[in-house]
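Most newcomers find our protein records easier to grasp once they have seen one. Nothing more is needed to start thinking about how sequence determines fold. Here is such a record, shown just as it appears in the course material:
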Amino acid sequence: MPKNSKAVKRELDDDVTESVKDLLSNEDACDDSFKKSSLIVNGQEGEGKECDVEEGGSDSEEEERPAWNSKLQYILAQVGFSVGLGNVWRFPYLCQKNGGGAYLVPYLILLVLIGIPLFFLELAVGQRIRRGSIGVWNYISPRLGGIGFASCVVCFFVALYYNVIISWSLFYFSQSFQQPLPWHECPLIKNKTSTYVVPECEKSSATTYYWYRDALDISDSISEGGGLNWKMTVCLLAAWSMVCLAMIKGIQSSGKVMYFSSLFPYVVLICFLARALLLKGSVDGIRHMFTPKLEIMLEAKVWREAATQVFFALGLGFGGVIAFSSYNKRDNNCHFDAVLVSFINFFTSVLATLVVFAVLGFKANVMNSKCVALNTNRIVALLGNGIEATLIPHHINLTQVSQVTADDYHQMIDIIKGVKEDEFQKLGLESCTIEDELNKAVQGTGLAFIAFTEAMTHFPASPFWSVMFFLMLVNLGLGSMFGTIEGILTPLIDAFKVRKELLTVGCCALAFSIGLLFVQRSGNYFVTMFDDYSATLPLLIVVVLENIAVAWVYGIDKFFEDLKEMLGFAPYRFYYYMWKYVTPILLLVLLCASFIQLIMTPPSYSAWIQEEAMEKTLPFPPWGIGVCISLVVMAIMPVPVVFCLRYFNIVDDGSDGLAAVSYKKARIIKESGRPEDDDDASLIHGKSPSEAPSPMPGIYRKQSGGGTEGDTAPNGRYGIGYLMPSTPDTPESDS
C-alpha cells in the first residue's frame, strides 16, 4: 500500500486512519493514555493536554478556548462594538450635510456592497480559525501576517483617545446632579464696585464656555501644553479602571456587562425621542432632517463620506469583530449574524438621527424665539429713526414684545425689506428662521457637549435628562472599547500565550500612562490629531489586504467550500462576486480618494482662542506634522516588515505543516505526506493538512519505544500515525 495514499489500515477493528478534520470531530474518542502522551514540536517536549489537533497546530486550543454563554450575549457584544459614539454624533451630521433623507440611499447601497460582505468575511474567518487577528491572517497567508499586528496597533491608538471621550462623558455625568445645570448660564464675576459676566462666556455661550474653560481648560494652541487637567485625569483613571475590570476575565466578565452597556443606550434613545416629540419644534427638526436634496447625491464626496461611515460604523479592520467571533461554535450561522448586526447598526443610526434632530428642532425653536424677541426690540428702538411706524401692521402690538410671534416678525421684516431694500442691511435685522438655526451643522464633541447640552437646559427636569444622556454616551463608548481592547488582547494571548489578567492590567496601565497626553490643557488637539490620522488610512489599507488575502491569495473558491462545510449551506453567489471583484475595487477607490484628500488637505486643527472666544483653524507645527505622519507609518509598518522577514526567510513563514493523521488508540507510526502537487486544499476547511499547508510547525508524538524523529516527507511535512501497543515500531509497507 503506497505511503501517500488515503487508504484506511485497520487492526483488531480499532485501528482507524483519519484526516485532521475527522480527528477533530471525534475528540471524545481519545483515551486517557493518549491525552497524557508527550508532545514534541520541532524537537521540544511538552505535555499534550488533549488529542485535539487544531488545523492551526494548537494542541489544546479547542477545549481551553472560552465560549459565549449564549447567542444573545454574543450578538449584544457585536452590536455594542459596532454601535458607538459615531452613530449618535457623526451619522446625523453627515445625513444633514449630504442631502438629508437622500443620504440614506448611498449609505444603504454601500452598506450592501461593502459593509455586509466584509463584516461577514471577518466573522467567518474568526469563527472558523478560532484565533485573534494575528493568528487568523498568519494562518491564511503567513507573508501577510502583518495585517494582524497592524490591526492591533490601530486598536491601541484608537483606544488611547476613545477612552478620553468616555472620561469627558463621565465628567459631565458627574456634574449633572445639580439644579440648575452648571452650564445653564454664564458665571458672574463680582468685585467691590460691580458684577459682570465673564467676557469669554458673554462672547460665546454658556455651554460653549463650560466645555472649553470649565471642563477642558483648553490652551490656545497645541504647542502650549499647560500641564495636566486634574479633573479629567481622575475621570480618565476611572474610565480605564472600568474597562480593565470589565475585561480582566475576558468574555466571561465583559459578556455580562454587555447586557447593560449594549441595551441601555436604546432605552435612553427611545425615551429621548418620546420626550422630544412632545416639545415644540421637534417636528420641524425631523422634517428638516429628512427633506431630501436629491441633487447632492450626484456629488462624489457624498459617496466617499457614506463609504467611510459604513466602514467605521461596523468596526471593520480593528480585529474586534474577529476576536468576538473566534469564541463562537464552528457551526454558528455567522451570515445571519452579519446581516442582523449590520441592519441593527443602521437602524440605530436612524433612531439616533431622529432623536438628535428632534432635540435640535426644539433648540432651534427656542433660539428662534429669542432671536425674534431681540430683533423686535431693535425694531421698536428704530421706530421714527429709520423705520416708520406706518410700516408696522396694525394687528401687531409692539408694546408687548413677548407676544410677537415668529410669523408676525417675518411679516414685519418682509414689509420693511420691500420698502427699504437699499437700507435694510444697515438696520442690522436678522431673518430669524428655524432653518437657519438647523443649518448650523455640528458634529462630534460640538454636538454632544455644546449643542445637545444647551438643548437639555431648556428641558423640564433637565438634570434627569442630562444624567441619562451622558450615561448613554458612557455606555456607547464602553461597548466600543470592549471590542477595541479585545482586538488587542485576543491576538496577543493567542500568539504569545500570556495570562489574560496580567496582559489586561498591563495594557490598561500603559494606555492610561500614554493617555495623560490627552488630559493636559492642549489634550483636545491631540485627540483630533489621533482621530484624523491614526485610524482612517491604516484601517482602509488593512481591510483592502484582508479582502485580497482571502479572495485572491487564499482563493475564493476554497473559501466558499470552507463556508459551506462550516455553515451547512453554500452562501449566496452574490458574496462570491462581491469579495472577488466589487468590494476590492470599491475599497481601492475609497483608499485612493482618502489618500488624495489627506495630501490635498493641509494638516490643521480647530483651536479655541480665549481672547476672541471663538474657534480658529491653525496649521500643525512641524513637529505636529511629524507626529501625524508617524501615526500612519507606525500603524502600517507591521505589514511590509512581516512580509519582508518571511519573504527573505529571516523568520520562518510557518509553511511546514502536518501530513495526514493516522489515528489508533495507542502509539503512533510515521506516515509520509502527500506529494506537493496535491497540496491545494484549504487551510480553514477541515481537510487533512496533507492536503493543505499549515502555518504551524510539524507535530508528532514521541513513541514509547524511544523512536527517532519522523522522516521529512517530500513536501517538508512530518507524517503522523497511531498504532496499537502490540504493533511493531515499523513504517507501513509499500505493498
Q: What stands out?
A: The two ends are 4 Å apart (CA to CA). Residues 1-63, 655-735 have pLDDT under 50 and may be disordered. Residues 67 and 327 are 5 Å apart (CA to CA). Residues 71-367+441-653 form a domain with the Amino acid/polyamine transporter I fold (CATH 1.20.1740.10).
